[in-house]
Amino acid sequence: MGKNIANTTHTFFFCDGGSCQKAGGEKVIRAARAYLRNNDNWNDTHTIKTRCNGRCEDAPTCIVHPGEFWYKELTPEKITHIVKGHIQNECPLETELLYREGWEEQVSNKEIAPIKPKPFEFKSDEELGDCLITRGFSSDQYLYPLFLFLLEKPEGVTLQLPNKPHLAFKDINAVNYSKEFTLELQTKTDCLEFFIAAVPKENKELQQLKISSTEYFYQKETTKTGIRFKNKFGKTLGRIEFDSINTEAWQYCTKIQLQRLTLDLSQL
Ligand code: FES
User: Fold this and answer.
1) Centre of ligand 1 from the C-alpha of residue 65, in Å
2) Which residues, in sequence order, are bridge partners of residue 186?
3) How confident is the model at residue 190, as a pLDDT?
4) Are residues 71 and 163 in the same domain?
5) What pLDDT is attached to residue 222?
6) Closest to 236 in 3D by CA, of 158, 134, 163
């Protein structure tokens, strides 16, 4: 039988994302779990590994509930004090806190400014001609939501893949992202694949297929907007085009994918 979670007094959320792993997060998690086991707290506490908590600069990180206690730069020694403090005295280890409820801002020595897309700039592009273009984000945390949005709002959206006929997005019935690296677009007769998750460095074939660059553009000649996907070697893997600058999907792209970047047509 599993734990009776109704008895849980404390939950520790340990980040298991890439930066925290590199910074020794696994040793921290093991130390916390060993402490809980040896002090007879195993059955009334819970430890959970999470993906990135968005504070990689402070890795390894952990969040403690109840309360809203965020800890930074953890080591096995620190986490043992932290776990003990919360369980025995409900007392956080203030010196190691990144944030707690009620603070106006987090306390970090390693603050990194958020990465934002650069403004659109004019370019004479081999494929697109004269255009305004910028680069968005290419991680699956951006691309999966993008494809889901386009599935919901397909009006005026066309998919162009090398050596395939153009496909209206309204003919796509489903977007699946259940495989390790691959997002699938399902049509009545076909299943189109996009590689959107990090693929092994040594696998040359997958490196060729992985989307590593996502560019958003406005074409001067056609007045169309769109997205171009490339691999890390600069080869175009596909394009999405929007009929006009006013399509709901393009507006979504500038607001969500490009974080409210404006397109200044006077640059053309
Ligand atoms: S990987 Fe842990 S906070 Fe980002």
Assistant:
1) 18
2) 174, 191
3) 93
4) no
5) 94
6) 163
Q: Extract the tokens encoding 91.
A: 């007392």
Angle at 245 between CA 166 and CA 263, to 5 degrees: 125
DSSP for 184-233 reads EEE-SS-EEEEE-S---TT-HHHHHHB--EEEEEEETTT--EEEEEE-TT
Range of the domain at 242: 121-267
Ligand 1 center to residue 177 CA distance, Å?
Answer: 22
Please tell me whether residues 252 and 205 are part of one structural domain. Answer: yes
In whole angstroms, how far apart are CA 235 and each of 117, 133, 211, 212? 21, 17, 10, 10
Task: Give residue 267's pLDDT.
Answer: 86
Ligand 1 centre distance from Cα of residue 49 (Å): 11
Predicted pLDDT of residue 112? 86
Q: What is the position in ligand 1's atom list of the atom closest to the CA of 21?
A: 1
- Give the pLDDT score at 47: 97
Q: Which amino acid is at 71?
A: Y
Q: pLDDT below 50 — which residues of the chain?
A: none
Residue 112 maps to a domain: no
72 lines ligand 1 (CB under 6 A): no
pLDDT at 114: 84
Closest-CA residue, ligand 1 atom 1, reads 17
Q: How far is the CA of 254 from the centre of ligand 1 (A)?
A: 26
Residue 61 Cβ < 6 Å to ligand 1: yes
